[in-house]
Automatic annotation (TrEMBL), chain A:
UniProt-listed Enzyme Commission number(s): 6.3.5.-
Domain of life per record: Bacteria
Subunit relationships: Heterotrimer of A, B and C subunits.
One GO term of the biological process aspect: translation
Alphabetically ordered keywords of this record: ATP-binding, Ligase, Nucleotide-binding, Protein biosynthesis, Transferase
Name this polypeptide is given: Aspartyl/glutamyl-tRNA(Asn/Gln) amidotransferase subunit B
Reaction catalysed by this enzyme: L-aspartyl-tRNA(Asn) + L-glutamine + ATP + H2O = L-asparaginyl-tRNA(Asn) + L-glutamate + ADP + phosphate + 2 H(+); L-glutamyl-tRNA(Gln) + L-glutamine + ATP + H2O = L-glutaminyl-tRNA(Gln) + L-glutamate + ADP + phosphate + H(+)
Species annotation: Prauserella muralis
PROSITE patterns: GATB
UniProt cross-references to InterPro entries, sorted A to Z: Asn/Gln-tRNA_amidoTrfase_suB/E (IPR017959), Asn/Gln-tRNA_Trfase_suB/E_cat (IPR006075), Asn/Gln_amidotransferase (IPR018027), Asn/Gln_tRNA_amidoTrase-B-like (IPR003789), GatB (IPR004413), GatB_Yqey_C_2 (IPR023168), Gln-tRNA_amidoTrfase_suB_CS (IPR017958), Gln_synth/guanido_kin_cat_dom (IPR014746)
Automatic annotation (TrEMBL), chain B:
Known role: Allows the formation of correctly charged Asn-tRNA(Asn) or Gln-tRNA(Gln) through the transamidation of misacylated Asp-tRNA(Asn) or Glu-tRNA(Gln) in organisms which lack either or both of asparaginyl-tRNA or glutaminyl-tRNA synthetases. The reaction takes place in the presence of glutamine and ATP through an activated phospho-Asp-tRNA(Asn) or phospho-Glu-tRNA(Gln).
Top class in the EC scheme: ligase
Family matches, as HAMAP family: GatC (MF_00122)
One BP term from GO: translation
UniProt protein name: Aspartyl/glutamyl-tRNA(Asn/Gln) amidotransferase subunit C
Pfam family, one: GatC
Nucleotidyltransferase among keywords: no
GO MF entries: ATP binding; glutaminyl-tRNA synthase (glutamine-hydrolyzing) activity; transferase activity
Source domain of life: Bacteria
EC number: 6.3.5.-
Reactions listed under catalytic activity: L-glutamyl-tRNA(Gln) + L-glutamine + ATP + H2O = L-glutaminyl-tRNA(Gln) + L-glutamate + ADP + phosphate + H(+); L-aspartyl-tRNA(Asn) + L-glutamine + ATP + H2O = L-asparaginyl-tRNA(Asn) + L-glutamate + ADP + phosphate + 2 H(+)
Assembly and binders: Heterotrimer of A, B and C subunits.
UniProt family annotation: Belongs to the GatC family.
């Protein structure tokens, strides 16, 4: 449908141009209810079952602000070193699109709740880059569209669309950076590192489940180029649909090479929204961007202003937990790691997960081993970031505890983890559902032992005759019969007991 | 004296999804001029010490507890929909791109 774009070699791009980035990150808050009504804020569910007159935009329905969401917004602002507005309002952003049943999105316009902050971001080699934050404001998420009739489920070629408003009205915080300049060839890496740092921060604060694969953390990347040494920003594009950390880096890099090729030919960049294509890492044109005036923002008449008292802000500041970079410094000291070991742990995305697993009661060595070995393999196999694996540190800690208490063998523990990753619930539920408990009930084991001894009378005789090591064959048979769920040591004891050796 | 052009009226009509005839463009341009002039008069009496008012009640920080309240069932939600399919609202083909 669209011709393949010409791309400039990356080395030439950064020799001839300076990239300018602007990153907009949308975070869905993990409150119990939506932003302006008491509907549950849950991912998925049967379509249109988490809805009410307010989030469906029915006539006469009135919104009421979720206090917890405001609290989270202020906390996020504080963690990002922002100033918190003394007084601010919501605004209506007007546009017609079926994913917004009200025909406007309740957002904030020129009075964001938090502004003028920064986030220090550590790159892969340890270099620290300060990213300035323009603002963080509150708004609501849209519904989900399902396009029917198009070949790819995309809007193009669709005959009609189906709308599910379960997500409409879910609290969102939009965090916008100031222009990020002077990064040169490292711009794509900085973009990824920034979103990673933001994700780690939000996770540590427990304000969002920050699942990029489920859309609870989404990044729009604004990219423009200016001639090397220039100071006037070029025309930018905004790439959406960037659903993983790796994609953030790829999308920025792709836009740099695409725009450079156009500019080098004397062409001009169209200011537009572009869609990231996960399959080949390219971007394709979307709609031409509306100007802010076209949204006809005005103060939301149905919601009164928010004026956080300084006392409240200070109270919230005190609730900000140990931040990821502080925690990393602490674990480095506590676990006696070299800079390099710590960086490896951080770069694989394991550091905070291991620390959180330790906080949930696991021993550091065991926690490290699970995340760095088995779970890293699982993440690689699924081509997702370690942190995006659908398992939480507390769940890993629970599995470790089950192994330590003898309820699971290591082999069974991996099966339990598989079950959690497959969405079968908490570790204990998986154990229950899959029947994975170590068989410690002697009567069940004895039956299996008797059966194995009867099946191999010659081996039984050998054991009886004093060849205790021959019991291994019977242990093997029992383990096979119990599908590996028996404690091998106990089986051996029972065999010896049974043959009277 | 403001001066709203026919093009601006047509643009606003498009944003508001309103069908406006050629004749109406002229009528509305004139009427919008008058409305804007009338509103501009407020600026003549509003001094720097008078903050703009968006809300008539002197209230701030009206919050709700983060507690789930019962909503609508799927059947109730879709009851007023002109068309529904697979538990979802069915809408005609969407022109333009996703937001």
């Amino acid at each position: 449908m669209t011709a393949v774009a010409d791309l400039m070699d990356y080395a030439e791009v950064v020799e001839r141009f300076d990239p300018v980035l602007g990153l907009e990150v949308h975070v869905e808050l993990s409150t119990d209810t939506k932003m302006f009504c008491g509907c549950p804020n849950l991912f998925g569910g049967e379509p249109n079952t988490h809805v009410c007159p307010t989030c469906l935009g029915l006539p006469g329905a009135l919104p009421v602000v979720n206090g917890k969401a405001v609290e989270s917004a202020i906390r996020i602002g504080l963690a990002l070193n922002c100033e918190i507005a003394e007084w601010c309002r919501f605004a209506r952003k007007n546009y017609f699109y079926p994913d917004m049943p009200k025909n406007f999105q309740t957002s904030q316009y020129d009075e964001p709740i938090a502004f003028n902050g920064h986030l220090d971001v550590v790159l892969d080699d340890g270099e620290v880059v300060r990213v300035d934050i323009e603002r963080a404001h509150m708004e609501e998420d849209t519904g989900k569209s399902l396009h029917v009739g198009g070949a790819t489920g995309r809007i193009h070629g669709a005959e009609h669309s189906l709308l599910d408003y379960n997500r409409a009205g879910v609290p969102l915080i939009e965090i916008v950076t100031k222009p990020i300049v002077g990064m040169g060839a490292r711009a794509p890496e900085v973009a990824r590192a920034y979103v990673t740092a933001l994700r780690d921060l939000l996770r540590a604060m427990d304000v969002s489940d920050v699942r990029m694969d489920q859309g609870s953390l989404r990044c729009d990347a604004n990219v423009s180029l200016m001639p090397k040494g220039g100071s006037e920003f070029g025309t930018r594009t905004e790439t959406k649909n960037v659903n993983s950390l790796r994609s953030v880096e790829r999308a920025v890099r792709y836009e740099m090479t695409r725009q450079a090729a156009i500019l080098a030919e004397g062409g001009t960049i169209t200011q537009e929204t572009r869609h990231f294509q996960e399959a080949d890492g390219s971007t394709s044109p979307g709609r031409t961007k509306e100007t802010a005036e076209d949204y006809r923002y005005f103060p939301e008449p149905d919601l009164v202003p928010i004026a956080p008292s300084r006392a409240w802000v200070e109270q919230l500041r005190a609730t900000i937990p140990e931040l990821p970079w502080e925690r990393r410094k602490r674990i480095q000291a506590e676990w006696n790691l070299t800079d390099e070991e710590l960086r490896d742990l951080v770069n694989t995305g394991a550091a905070d997960l291991v620390a959180a697993t330790v906080d949930a009661g696991a021993e550091p060595g065991e926690a490290r081993s699970w995340w760095v070995q088995y779970l890293t393999q699982q993440a690689n196999a699924r081509e997702v970031e370690l942190a995006d694996l659908p398992i939480a540190p507390a769940q890993v800690a629970r599995v470790i505890a089950l192994v330590n208490s003898g309820e699971l063998t290591n082999k069974l523990a991996r099966e339990v983890v598989q079950g959690v990753l497959a969405g079968e619930g908490e570790p204990d539920e998986v154990v229950e559902k899959r029947g994975l408990k170590v068989v410690s009930d002697d009567s069940a084991l004895l039956a299996a032992v008797d059966e194995a001894l009867a099946a191999q009378p010659d081996v039984a005789d050998k054991i009886r005759g004093g060849k205790v090591q021959a019991a291994g064959a019977i242990v093997g048979a029992v383990m096979k019969a119990t599908k590996g769920q028996a404690d091998a040591k106990r089986v051996r004891e029972l065999i010896l007991e049974r043959v009277g050796a | 004296m403001s001066n709203i052009s026919r093009d601006e009226v047509a643009h606003l009509a498009k944003l508001a999804r309103m069908a406006v005839t050629e004749e109406e463009l002229d009528v509305f341009a004139g009427q919008l001029d008058q409305i804007l002039d009338a509103v501009a008069k407020v600026g003549e009496v509003a001094a720097d010490d008078i903050p703009p008012t968006s809300h008539a009640v002197p209230l701030t920080n009206v919050f709700r507890e983060d507690v789930v309240r019962p909503g609508l069932t799927q059947q109730e939600a879709l009851a007023g929909a002109p068309a529904a399919e697979e538990g979802r609202f069915r809408v005609p083909r969407i022109l333009g791109e996703e937001q």
